[in-house]
Amino acid sequence: MKILVCISHVPDTTSKINFADGDTRFDTNGVQFVINPNDEFGLTRAMWFKEKQGAAVTVVNIGGPETEPTLRKALAIGADEAIRVNAQPTDGFFVATQLAKVVQDGGYDLVIAGRESIDYNGGMVPGMLASLTGANFVNTCIGLEIEGSEASAIREIDGGKETVKCSLPLIIGGQKGLVEESDLRIPNMRGIMMARQKKLTVLEPEDLQSRTSVVKFEKPAPKGEVKLVSPDNLDELIRMLHNEAKVI
Amino acid sequence: MSILIYTESEEGKLKKTAFEIASYARALAGQTGDTVTAVAVNVDNTSELGNYGVDKVLKVSDEKLSRFNARAYADVIKQAAEKEGAKMVIISSSANDKYLAPILAVNLQAGYASNVVALPESTDPFRVKRTAFTNKAFNITEISTDVKLIGLSKNSFGLKEAEGSASEEAFAPSLDDKDFAVRTESVDKTTGKVTIADAEIVVSGGRGLKGPENWGMIEELADVLGAATACSKPVSDMGWRPHSEHVGQTGKPVAANLYVAVGISGAIQHLAGINASKVKVVINSDPEAPFFKAADYGVVGDAFEVVPALVEKLKEFKAQNS
Questions:
Q1: Cα separation of B154 and B89, whole Å?
Q2: Helix, strand or coil for residue B32?
Q3: Residue A118: domain span
Q4: What is the ipTM of this complex?
Q5: Nearest CA of chain B to the CA of A107: how many Å?
Q6: Pair (B35, B160) in one structural domain
Q7: What is the tens place of the pLDDT at every residue in B102-133?
Q8: Is B279 within 8 Å of A92 when comparing Cβ atoms?
Q9: Domain span including residue B72
Q10: How far is CA B119 from CA B32, B65, B81, B160, in A?
Q11: Is A24 helix (H, G, I), strand (E, B) or coil?
Q12: How many domains does chain B have?
Protein backbone atom coordinates (compact mmCIF):
# COMPACT_ATOMS: atom_id res chain seq x y z
CA MET A 1 0.00 0.00 0.00
CA LYS A 2 1.26 3.46 -0.91
CA ILE A 3 0.24 6.21 1.48
CA LEU A 4 0.59 9.94 0.97
CA VAL A 5 0.29 12.16 4.03
CA CYS A 6 -0.33 15.85 3.33
CA ILE A 7 1.49 18.09 5.75
CA SER A 8 0.59 21.68 6.39
CA HIS A 9 3.27 23.90 7.93
CA VAL A 10 1.47 25.99 10.56
CA PRO A 11 2.19 28.21 13.55
CA ASP A 12 2.44 26.33 16.83
CA THR A 13 -0.87 26.21 18.74
CA THR A 14 0.49 28.55 21.43
CA SER A 15 1.48 31.26 18.92
CA LYS A 16 0.37 34.82 19.39
CA ILE A 17 -1.28 35.89 16.16
CA ASN A 18 -0.09 39.20 14.73
CA PHE A 19 -0.19 40.74 11.29
CA ALA A 20 2.21 42.91 9.30
CA ASP A 21 2.26 45.15 6.20
CA GLY A 22 -1.01 46.89 6.99
CA ASP A 23 -2.67 43.67 8.20
CA THR A 24 -2.18 41.99 4.83
CA ARG A 25 0.32 39.36 5.94
CA PHE A 26 0.70 37.00 8.91
CA ASP A 27 3.64 38.14 11.00
CA THR A 28 5.97 35.15 11.33
CA ASN A 29 8.31 37.01 13.67
CA GLY A 30 9.11 34.83 16.66
CA VAL A 31 6.62 32.20 15.53
CA GLN A 32 7.53 28.55 15.71
CA PHE A 33 6.15 26.38 12.92
CA VAL A 34 4.99 22.81 13.38
CA ILE A 35 3.23 19.98 11.55
CA ASN A 36 -0.48 20.86 11.53
CA PRO A 37 -1.94 18.88 14.47
CA ASN A 38 -4.72 17.32 12.38
CA ASP A 39 -2.04 16.14 9.91
CA GLU A 40 0.15 14.77 12.69
CA PHE A 41 -2.63 12.42 13.83
CA GLY A 42 -2.82 11.20 10.24
CA LEU A 43 0.94 10.81 9.93
CA THR A 44 1.02 8.75 13.12
CA ARG A 45 -1.77 6.50 11.82
CA ALA A 46 0.23 6.11 8.59
CA MET A 47 3.23 4.95 10.69
CA TRP A 48 0.98 2.25 12.12
CA PHE A 49 0.11 1.05 8.60
CA LYS A 50 3.80 1.10 7.73
CA GLU A 51 4.80 -0.96 10.74
CA LYS A 52 1.89 -3.44 10.80
CA GLN A 53 1.01 -3.72 7.12
CA GLY A 54 4.21 -2.76 5.32
CA ALA A 55 2.89 0.44 3.79
CA ALA A 56 5.26 2.92 2.13
CA VAL A 57 4.68 6.45 3.41
CA THR A 58 5.42 9.65 1.52
CA VAL A 59 4.78 13.10 2.98
CA VAL A 60 4.01 16.14 0.86
CA ASN A 61 3.77 19.86 1.44
CA ILE A 62 2.94 22.77 -0.80
CA GLY A 63 5.24 25.56 0.29
CA GLY A 64 8.51 27.40 -0.01
CA PRO A 65 11.95 26.17 1.18
CA GLU A 66 11.16 27.49 4.67
CA THR A 67 8.77 24.56 5.17
CA GLU A 68 11.46 21.90 4.71
CA PRO A 69 12.27 21.56 8.44
CA THR A 70 8.63 20.56 8.97
CA LEU A 71 8.93 17.91 6.24
CA ARG A 72 12.24 16.72 7.76
CA LYS A 73 10.46 16.33 11.07
CA ALA A 74 7.86 14.12 9.39
CA LEU A 75 10.73 12.06 7.93
CA ALA A 76 12.32 11.85 11.37
CA ILE A 77 9.02 10.52 12.74
CA GLY A 78 9.31 7.75 10.16
CA ALA A 79 7.98 8.72 6.73
CA ASP A 80 10.05 7.17 3.92
CA GLU A 81 10.33 10.11 1.61
CA ALA A 82 9.09 13.65 1.11
CA ILE A 83 7.86 15.84 -1.70
CA ARG A 84 7.71 19.60 -1.65
CA VAL A 85 5.79 21.43 -4.35
CA ASN A 86 7.61 24.72 -4.56
CA ALA A 87 4.79 27.28 -4.38
CA GLN A 88 3.06 29.52 -1.90
CA PRO A 89 -0.23 27.90 -0.92
CA THR A 90 -2.52 30.72 -2.02
CA ASP A 91 -5.86 29.01 -1.46
CA GLY A 92 -7.42 25.62 -0.81
CA PHE A 93 -8.24 24.99 -4.46
CA PHE A 94 -4.67 25.81 -5.51
CA VAL A 95 -3.27 23.41 -2.92
CA ALA A 96 -5.76 20.65 -3.77
CA THR A 97 -4.93 20.95 -7.49
CA GLN A 98 -1.19 20.70 -6.84
CA LEU A 99 -1.78 17.71 -4.60
CA ALA A 100 -4.04 16.06 -7.19
CA LYS A 101 -1.09 16.03 -9.62
CA VAL A 102 1.15 14.44 -6.98
CA VAL A 103 -1.52 11.85 -6.14
CA GLN A 104 -2.14 10.92 -9.77
CA ASP A 105 1.55 10.70 -10.67
CA GLY A 106 2.36 8.68 -7.55
CA GLY A 107 -0.55 6.22 -7.72
CA TYR A 108 -1.28 6.37 -3.99
CA ASP A 109 -3.89 4.06 -2.50
CA LEU A 110 -4.54 6.18 0.56
CA VAL A 111 -4.11 9.90 1.11
CA ILE A 112 -4.40 11.30 4.61
CA ALA A 113 -4.74 15.03 5.14
CA GLY A 114 -5.91 16.89 8.21
CA ARG A 115 -9.57 17.92 8.21
CA GLU A 116 -8.33 21.52 8.31
CA SER A 117 -5.19 23.49 9.00
CA ILE A 118 -5.16 25.44 12.24
CA ASP A 119 -4.11 28.67 10.50
CA TYR A 120 -6.57 29.24 7.66
CA ASN A 121 -9.15 26.69 8.81
CA GLY A 122 -10.46 26.41 5.25
CA GLY A 123 -11.36 22.75 5.71
CA MET A 124 -11.47 22.22 1.97
CA VAL A 125 -8.26 20.59 0.74
CA PRO A 126 -9.12 16.90 1.40
CA GLY A 127 -12.61 17.17 -0.12
CA MET A 128 -11.42 19.10 -3.15
CA LEU A 129 -8.59 16.63 -3.65
CA ALA A 130 -11.12 13.78 -3.61
CA SER A 131 -13.29 15.58 -6.11
CA LEU A 132 -10.38 16.34 -8.41
CA THR A 133 -9.01 12.79 -8.35
CA GLY A 134 -12.32 10.90 -8.17
CA ALA A 135 -11.15 8.96 -5.11
CA ASN A 136 -13.49 8.11 -2.27
CA PHE A 137 -13.54 10.55 0.62
CA VAL A 138 -14.23 10.39 4.34
CA ASN A 139 -14.02 13.59 6.34
CA THR A 140 -13.57 14.16 10.12
CA CYS A 141 -12.20 10.64 10.32
CA ILE A 142 -11.51 9.29 13.82
CA GLY A 143 -10.79 5.66 13.03
CA LEU A 144 -9.38 3.87 9.99
CA GLU A 145 -8.70 0.23 9.13
CA ILE A 146 -7.58 -1.07 5.74
CA GLU A 147 -7.84 -4.66 4.55
CA GLY A 148 -6.71 -5.39 1.04
CA SER A 149 -8.43 -2.75 -1.06
CA GLU A 150 -11.30 -2.15 1.37
CA ALA A 151 -11.40 0.53 4.04
CA SER A 152 -13.54 0.82 7.12
CA ALA A 153 -13.61 4.28 8.66
CA ILE A 154 -15.30 5.98 11.56
CA ARG A 155 -16.47 9.49 10.94
CA GLU A 156 -17.32 12.00 13.63
CA ILE A 157 -20.72 13.58 13.05
CA ASP A 158 -22.54 16.22 15.07
CA GLY A 159 -23.61 14.38 18.21
CA GLY A 160 -22.05 11.02 17.46
CA LYS A 161 -20.19 8.94 14.93
CA GLU A 162 -20.86 6.71 11.99
CA THR A 163 -19.05 3.78 10.46
CA VAL A 164 -18.56 3.79 6.70
CA LYS A 165 -17.01 1.36 4.23
CA CYS A 166 -15.55 1.94 0.81
CA SER A 167 -12.83 0.79 -1.52
CA LEU A 168 -9.44 2.36 -2.15
CA PRO A 169 -8.21 4.76 -3.40
CA LEU A 170 -9.39 6.81 -0.48
CA ILE A 171 -8.80 10.33 0.79
CA ILE A 172 -9.14 10.99 4.49
CA GLY A 173 -9.79 14.28 6.27
CA GLY A 174 -8.23 13.26 9.57
CA GLN A 175 -8.21 14.55 13.11
CA LYS A 176 -7.59 13.49 16.69
CA GLY A 177 -9.01 10.03 17.20
CA LEU A 178 -7.19 8.52 14.19
CA VAL A 179 -4.63 7.95 16.94
CA GLU A 180 -4.61 9.19 20.50
CA GLU A 181 -2.61 12.16 21.66
CA SER A 182 -0.39 9.78 23.65
CA ASP A 183 0.46 7.89 20.45
CA LEU A 184 2.08 10.93 18.85
CA ARG A 185 5.80 10.50 18.41
CA ILE A 186 8.67 12.79 19.22
CA PRO A 187 11.51 12.13 16.78
CA ASN A 188 14.51 10.47 18.41
CA MET A 189 18.15 11.15 17.54
CA ARG A 190 18.36 8.14 15.23
CA GLY A 191 15.23 9.26 13.41
CA ILE A 192 16.61 12.76 13.01
CA MET A 193 19.93 11.43 11.66
CA MET A 194 18.18 9.11 9.22
CA ALA A 195 15.84 11.86 8.07
CA ARG A 196 18.83 13.79 6.73
CA GLN A 197 19.57 10.95 4.29
CA LYS A 198 15.99 10.48 3.10
CA LYS A 199 14.85 11.68 -0.28
CA LEU A 200 13.16 15.07 -0.46
CA THR A 201 11.99 15.82 -3.98
CA VAL A 202 11.18 19.38 -4.98
CA LEU A 203 8.60 19.73 -7.74
CA GLU A 204 7.57 22.86 -9.59
CA PRO A 205 3.87 23.73 -9.38
CA GLU A 206 1.17 23.51 -12.01
CA ASP A 207 0.28 26.90 -13.39
CA LEU A 208 -3.06 27.80 -11.89
CA GLN A 209 -5.27 30.68 -10.84
CA SER A 210 -6.48 30.72 -7.23
CA ARG A 211 -10.21 31.11 -6.73
CA THR A 212 -10.05 33.00 -3.47
CA SER A 213 -7.55 35.35 -1.88
CA VAL A 214 -7.08 36.95 1.49
CA VAL A 215 -7.33 40.71 1.18
CA LYS A 216 -6.82 41.63 4.80
CA PHE A 217 -6.57 40.23 8.31
CA GLU A 218 -8.30 41.52 11.40
CA LYS A 219 -7.83 40.83 15.06
CA PRO A 220 -10.90 40.48 17.26
CA ALA A 221 -12.00 43.68 19.00
CA PRO A 222 -10.43 43.96 22.45
CA LYS A 223 -12.56 42.44 25.12
CA GLY A 224 -14.17 44.46 27.89
CA GLU A 225 -13.26 43.82 31.51
CA VAL A 226 -14.70 40.70 33.07
CA LYS A 227 -17.52 41.40 35.52
CA LEU A 228 -16.72 39.55 38.69
CA VAL A 229 -19.51 38.28 40.89
CA SER A 230 -19.00 37.12 44.46
CA PRO A 231 -19.78 33.45 45.12
CA ASP A 232 -22.24 34.70 47.75
CA ASN A 233 -24.16 36.71 45.20
CA LEU A 234 -25.02 34.24 42.45
CA ASP A 235 -28.48 35.79 42.10
CA GLU A 236 -26.69 38.79 40.62
CA LEU A 237 -24.96 36.54 38.06
CA ILE A 238 -28.30 35.07 37.03
CA ARG A 239 -29.83 38.54 36.85
CA MET A 240 -27.04 39.79 34.55
CA LEU A 241 -27.18 36.72 32.31
CA HIS A 242 -30.92 37.21 32.01
CA ASN A 243 -31.29 41.00 31.75
CA GLU A 244 -27.96 42.19 30.40
CA ALA A 245 -26.53 39.36 28.30
CA LYS A 246 -29.99 37.92 27.57
CA VAL A 247 -28.67 34.39 27.22
CA ILE A 248 -30.86 32.63 29.79
CA MET B 1 -31.46 35.45 -10.32
CA SER B 2 -31.52 33.27 -7.29
CA ILE B 3 -29.39 32.74 -4.25
CA LEU B 4 -29.51 29.05 -3.43
CA ILE B 5 -29.44 27.80 0.13
CA TYR B 6 -29.21 24.20 1.23
CA THR B 7 -31.45 23.80 4.26
CA GLU B 8 -30.25 20.98 6.43
CA SER B 9 -32.65 18.69 8.22
CA GLU B 10 -32.64 15.90 10.72
CA GLU B 11 -35.25 13.16 10.82
CA GLY B 12 -37.39 15.04 8.34
CA LYS B 13 -37.34 18.35 10.22
CA LEU B 14 -35.41 21.46 9.29
CA LYS B 15 -32.57 22.38 11.64
CA LYS B 16 -32.32 25.80 13.24
CA THR B 17 -29.29 26.61 11.09
CA ALA B 18 -31.58 26.29 8.05
CA PHE B 19 -33.48 29.37 9.25
CA GLU B 20 -30.25 31.19 10.01
CA ILE B 21 -28.87 30.73 6.49
CA ALA B 22 -32.31 31.64 5.11
CA SER B 23 -32.12 34.89 7.10
CA TYR B 24 -28.60 35.53 5.81
CA ALA B 25 -29.59 34.82 2.20
CA ARG B 26 -32.61 37.13 2.50
CA ALA B 27 -30.41 39.98 3.71
CA LEU B 28 -27.89 39.29 0.93
CA ALA B 29 -30.70 39.18 -1.63
CA GLY B 30 -31.73 42.62 -0.37
CA GLN B 31 -28.30 43.91 -1.44
CA THR B 32 -28.18 42.17 -4.80
CA GLY B 33 -31.83 42.14 -5.86
CA ASP B 34 -31.92 38.34 -6.13
CA THR B 35 -34.57 35.92 -4.91
CA VAL B 36 -33.90 33.13 -2.42
CA THR B 37 -34.42 29.49 -3.31
CA ALA B 38 -33.95 26.70 -0.80
CA VAL B 39 -33.28 23.06 -1.57
CA ALA B 40 -34.44 20.60 1.09
CA VAL B 41 -33.97 16.84 1.10
CA ASN B 42 -36.70 14.57 2.46
CA VAL B 43 -38.38 17.29 4.53
CA ASP B 44 -42.18 17.09 4.71
CA ASN B 45 -43.01 20.55 5.95
CA THR B 46 -40.92 23.43 4.65
CA SER B 47 -43.53 26.18 5.04
CA GLU B 48 -41.65 27.85 7.91
CA LEU B 49 -38.87 28.85 5.50
CA GLY B 50 -41.20 31.51 4.13
CA ASN B 51 -41.08 33.24 7.51
CA TYR B 52 -37.35 33.77 7.00
CA GLY B 53 -37.53 35.20 3.52
CA VAL B 54 -37.30 32.15 1.27
CA ASP B 55 -39.22 32.65 -1.98
CA LYS B 56 -39.17 29.12 -3.33
CA VAL B 57 -38.36 25.67 -1.99
CA LEU B 58 -37.14 22.85 -4.18
CA LYS B 59 -38.30 19.72 -2.41
CA VAL B 60 -36.29 16.59 -3.03
CA SER B 61 -37.83 13.34 -1.95
CA ASP B 62 -35.71 10.29 -2.57
CA GLU B 63 -35.30 7.12 -0.53
CA LYS B 64 -31.67 6.85 -1.65
CA LEU B 65 -30.97 10.09 0.23
CA SER B 66 -32.47 8.90 3.51
CA ARG B 67 -28.95 8.78 4.93
CA PHE B 68 -26.52 11.60 4.46
CA ASN B 69 -23.94 10.99 1.75
CA ALA B 70 -21.57 13.84 0.97
CA ARG B 71 -21.13 13.20 -2.77
CA ALA B 72 -24.80 12.54 -3.40
CA TYR B 73 -25.93 15.56 -1.42
CA ALA B 74 -23.31 17.74 -3.14
CA ASP B 75 -24.69 16.48 -6.43
CA VAL B 76 -28.26 17.43 -5.43
CA ILE B 77 -27.19 20.96 -4.47
CA LYS B 78 -25.14 21.36 -7.64
CA GLN B 79 -28.07 20.40 -9.84
CA ALA B 80 -30.37 22.72 -7.90
CA ALA B 81 -27.88 25.58 -8.31
CA GLU B 82 -27.65 24.97 -12.05
CA LYS B 83 -31.39 24.74 -12.44
CA GLU B 84 -31.81 28.08 -10.66
CA GLY B 85 -28.83 29.69 -12.35
CA ALA B 86 -27.61 30.56 -8.85
CA LYS B 87 -24.38 32.51 -8.59
CA MET B 88 -24.31 32.32 -4.81
CA VAL B 89 -24.80 29.14 -2.83
CA ILE B 90 -25.04 29.25 0.94
CA ILE B 91 -24.68 26.36 3.36
CA SER B 92 -24.12 26.00 7.10
CA SER B 93 -21.01 24.98 9.04
CA SER B 94 -22.34 21.67 10.35
CA ALA B 95 -20.12 18.59 10.08
CA ASN B 96 -22.16 17.32 7.14
CA ASP B 97 -22.15 20.63 5.30
CA LYS B 98 -18.39 21.00 5.77
CA TYR B 99 -18.04 17.48 4.38
CA LEU B 100 -19.96 18.19 1.19
CA ALA B 101 -18.81 21.80 0.64
CA PRO B 102 -15.41 21.20 -1.02
CA ILE B 103 -16.93 18.59 -3.34
CA LEU B 104 -19.67 21.03 -4.27
CA ALA B 105 -17.13 23.82 -4.78
CA VAL B 106 -15.12 21.76 -7.27
CA ASN B 107 -18.24 20.58 -9.09
CA LEU B 108 -19.61 24.11 -9.40
CA GLN B 109 -16.16 25.58 -10.14
CA ALA B 110 -16.94 27.89 -7.27
CA GLY B 111 -14.60 29.71 -4.93
CA TYR B 112 -15.47 28.63 -1.41
CA ALA B 113 -15.22 30.64 1.79
CA SER B 114 -15.88 28.65 4.95
CA ASN B 115 -16.60 29.95 8.47
CA VAL B 116 -18.08 33.18 7.18
CA VAL B 117 -19.37 35.45 9.96
CA ALA B 118 -21.00 38.42 8.22
CA LEU B 119 -22.68 39.67 5.07
CA PRO B 120 -20.24 40.57 2.27
CA GLU B 121 -18.35 43.84 2.75
CA SER B 122 -18.81 44.32 -0.94
CA THR B 123 -20.36 42.17 -3.65
CA ASP B 124 -18.17 43.48 -6.49
CA PRO B 125 -15.44 42.48 -5.81
CA PHE B 126 -17.05 39.86 -3.62
CA ARG B 127 -15.47 40.09 -0.17
CA VAL B 128 -16.58 38.36 3.02
CA LYS B 129 -15.25 38.17 6.54
CA ARG B 130 -14.43 34.75 7.94
CA THR B 131 -12.65 33.44 11.00
CA ALA B 132 -9.07 32.24 10.75
CA PHE B 133 -6.33 31.04 13.06
CA THR B 134 -8.98 29.06 14.92
CA ASN B 135 -10.94 32.11 16.03
CA LYS B 136 -7.86 34.07 17.05
CA ALA B 137 -8.41 36.36 14.05
CA PHE B 138 -10.52 37.10 11.00
CA ASN B 139 -9.67 37.51 7.36
CA ILE B 140 -11.42 39.26 4.53
CA THR B 141 -11.56 36.78 1.67
CA GLU B 142 -12.20 37.74 -1.91
CA ILE B 143 -13.92 35.16 -4.09
CA SER B 144 -13.07 35.75 -7.74
CA THR B 145 -15.08 33.01 -9.46
CA ASP B 146 -18.43 33.54 -11.13
CA VAL B 147 -20.19 31.12 -8.75
CA LYS B 148 -19.53 31.60 -5.05
CA LEU B 149 -19.99 29.16 -2.20
CA ILE B 150 -20.36 30.43 1.36
CA GLY B 151 -20.34 28.37 4.54
CA LEU B 152 -21.93 30.46 7.28
CA SER B 153 -20.69 30.04 10.85
CA LYS B 154 -23.38 29.01 13.27
CA ASN B 155 -24.89 31.77 15.42
CA SER B 156 -22.94 34.44 13.54
CA PHE B 157 -25.94 36.03 11.87
CA GLY B 158 -28.95 34.93 13.91
CA LEU B 159 -32.56 34.53 12.89
CA LYS B 160 -34.36 37.40 11.18
CA GLU B 161 -38.03 36.91 10.50
CA ALA B 162 -39.48 38.26 7.28
CA GLU B 163 -42.92 38.58 5.79
CA GLY B 164 -43.86 36.20 3.07
CA SER B 165 -44.44 32.64 2.07
CA ALA B 166 -42.43 30.23 -0.02
CA SER B 167 -43.75 28.44 -3.06
CA GLU B 168 -42.92 24.77 -3.35
CA GLU B 169 -41.69 22.74 -6.26
CA ALA B 170 -40.82 19.07 -6.46
CA PHE B 171 -37.27 18.56 -7.64
CA ALA B 172 -35.86 15.22 -8.77
CA PRO B 173 -32.13 15.43 -9.42
CA SER B 174 -30.54 12.53 -11.25
CA LEU B 175 -28.19 10.63 -8.97
CA ASP B 176 -25.23 8.58 -10.07
CA ASP B 177 -24.53 5.23 -8.40
CA LYS B 178 -20.92 6.35 -8.08
CA ASP B 179 -22.10 9.00 -5.60
CA PHE B 180 -22.84 6.19 -3.16
CA ALA B 181 -19.42 4.49 -3.23
CA VAL B 182 -18.89 5.37 0.45
CA ARG B 183 -21.50 3.28 2.28
CA THR B 184 -22.74 4.08 5.76
CA GLU B 185 -22.81 0.87 7.78
CA SER B 186 -24.03 2.18 11.12
CA VAL B 187 -24.76 5.43 12.92
CA ASP B 188 -24.12 5.82 16.62
CA LYS B 189 -25.73 8.98 17.84
CA THR B 190 -26.72 10.00 21.31
CA THR B 191 -30.41 10.72 21.40
CA GLY B 192 -32.26 12.92 23.82
CA LYS B 193 -29.09 14.84 24.63
CA VAL B 194 -28.15 18.28 23.36
CA THR B 195 -25.07 18.06 21.14
CA ILE B 196 -22.20 20.54 21.32
CA ALA B 197 -22.78 21.43 17.66
CA ASP B 198 -26.44 22.30 18.13
CA ALA B 199 -26.38 23.66 21.67
CA GLU B 200 -27.25 27.25 22.52
CA ILE B 201 -25.53 26.80 25.88
CA VAL B 202 -22.47 24.70 26.66
CA VAL B 203 -21.25 23.84 30.17
CA SER B 204 -17.64 22.72 30.20
CA GLY B 205 -15.45 21.24 32.93
CA GLY B 206 -11.69 21.21 33.35
CA ARG B 207 -8.99 19.73 35.50
CA GLY B 208 -10.17 21.83 38.43
CA LEU B 209 -12.93 19.27 38.94
CA LYS B 210 -10.27 16.83 40.16
CA GLY B 211 -11.80 13.64 38.76
CA PRO B 212 -14.50 12.08 36.57
CA GLU B 213 -16.56 11.21 39.65
CA ASN B 214 -17.27 14.92 40.13
CA TRP B 215 -19.01 15.42 36.78
CA GLY B 216 -22.47 14.98 38.29
CA MET B 217 -22.69 18.65 39.14
CA ILE B 218 -21.59 19.68 35.63
CA GLU B 219 -24.36 17.53 34.22
CA GLU B 220 -26.85 19.02 36.67
CA LEU B 221 -25.85 22.52 35.69
CA ALA B 222 -26.16 21.56 32.02
CA ASP B 223 -29.57 20.01 32.67
CA VAL B 224 -31.02 23.07 34.33
CA LEU B 225 -29.68 25.28 31.52
CA GLY B 226 -30.70 22.89 28.73
CA ALA B 227 -27.04 22.83 27.78
CA ALA B 228 -24.59 20.37 26.24
CA THR B 229 -21.62 19.21 28.32
CA ALA B 230 -18.05 19.64 27.16
CA CYS B 231 -14.55 19.42 28.61
CA SER B 232 -11.01 20.72 28.21
CA LYS B 233 -8.25 18.81 26.44
CA PRO B 234 -6.44 17.49 29.58
CA VAL B 235 -9.73 16.07 30.82
CA SER B 236 -10.29 14.08 27.62
CA ASP B 237 -6.59 13.11 27.43
CA MET B 238 -6.83 11.64 30.94
CA GLY B 239 -9.93 9.72 29.92
CA TRP B 240 -12.22 11.42 32.43
CA ARG B 241 -14.59 12.31 29.63
CA PRO B 242 -14.99 11.04 26.03
CA HIS B 243 -13.03 12.71 23.21
CA SER B 244 -16.28 13.78 21.63
CA GLU B 245 -16.64 16.31 24.48
CA HIS B 246 -13.20 17.86 23.99
CA VAL B 247 -13.54 21.46 22.87
CA GLY B 248 -10.65 23.67 21.82
CA GLN B 249 -8.25 24.19 18.95
CA THR B 250 -7.72 20.48 18.23
CA GLY B 251 -11.14 19.45 19.52
CA LYS B 252 -14.59 20.66 18.65
CA PRO B 253 -15.22 24.32 18.07
CA VAL B 254 -17.96 25.93 20.17
CA ALA B 255 -20.09 28.80 18.90
CA ALA B 256 -22.73 28.88 21.60
CA ASN B 257 -24.70 31.81 22.96
CA LEU B 258 -23.43 31.03 26.44
CA TYR B 259 -20.31 29.10 27.41
CA VAL B 260 -19.83 28.26 31.08
CA ALA B 261 -16.32 27.10 31.99
CA VAL B 262 -15.83 25.41 35.35
CA GLY B 263 -12.32 24.72 36.60
CA ILE B 264 -10.70 25.47 33.24
CA SER B 265 -7.65 27.72 33.41
CA GLY B 266 -8.02 28.97 29.84
CA ALA B 267 -4.98 27.88 27.83
CA ILE B 268 -4.66 29.76 24.53
CA GLN B 269 -5.64 26.60 22.59
CA HIS B 270 -8.81 26.19 24.62
CA LEU B 271 -9.76 29.85 24.20
CA ALA B 272 -9.27 29.58 20.45
CA GLY B 273 -11.80 26.79 20.25
CA ILE B 274 -14.53 28.49 22.24
CA ASN B 275 -13.93 32.09 21.25
CA ALA B 276 -16.81 32.21 18.80
CA SER B 277 -19.23 31.85 21.73
CA LYS B 278 -21.05 35.06 22.53
CA VAL B 279 -21.04 35.19 26.33
CA LYS B 280 -18.50 33.42 28.53
CA VAL B 281 -18.87 32.73 32.23
CA VAL B 282 -15.84 31.44 34.12
CA ILE B 283 -15.94 29.76 37.51
CA ASN B 284 -12.48 29.18 38.92
CA SER B 285 -10.84 29.23 42.33
CA ASP B 286 -7.68 30.85 40.94
CA PRO B 287 -8.20 34.59 40.40
CA GLU B 288 -5.07 34.58 38.18
CA ALA B 289 -6.54 32.01 35.75
CA PRO B 290 -6.01 33.45 32.24
CA PHE B 291 -9.59 32.57 31.33
CA PHE B 292 -10.87 35.53 33.39
CA LYS B 293 -9.26 37.88 30.85
CA ALA B 294 -11.33 36.31 28.08
CA ALA B 295 -14.56 36.07 30.08
CA ASP B 296 -17.59 38.32 30.27
CA TYR B 297 -18.61 37.20 33.74
CA GLY B 298 -16.53 35.52 36.38
CA VAL B 299 -16.91 33.93 39.78
CA VAL B 300 -13.73 33.44 41.79
CA GLY B 301 -14.60 30.58 44.06
CA ASP B 302 -14.52 26.88 44.74
CA ALA B 303 -16.41 25.07 41.99
CA PHE B 304 -17.57 22.44 44.49
CA GLU B 305 -19.47 25.15 46.35
CA VAL B 306 -20.34 27.56 43.53
CA VAL B 307 -21.77 25.06 41.03
CA PRO B 308 -24.28 23.32 43.34
CA ALA B 309 -25.39 26.72 44.67
CA LEU B 310 -25.76 28.04 41.13
CA VAL B 311 -27.81 24.97 40.17
CA GLU B 312 -30.23 25.65 43.04
CA LYS B 313 -30.54 29.34 42.22
CA LEU B 314 -31.10 28.57 38.54
CA LYS B 315 -33.84 26.11 39.42
CA GLU B 316 -35.57 28.86 41.42
CA PHE B 317 -35.09 31.29 38.55
CA LYS B 318 -36.47 28.83 36.01
CA ALA B 319 -39.46 28.10 38.22
CA GLN B 320 -40.25 31.81 38.45
CA ASN B 321 -39.74 32.52 34.77
CA SER B 322 -41.48 29.59 33.18
A1: 16
A2: helix
A3: 2-220
A4: 0.96
A5: 19
A6: yes
A7: 999 999 999 999 999 999 999 999 999 999 99
A8: no
A9: 2-180
A10: 12, 31, 20, 13
A11: coil
A12: 2
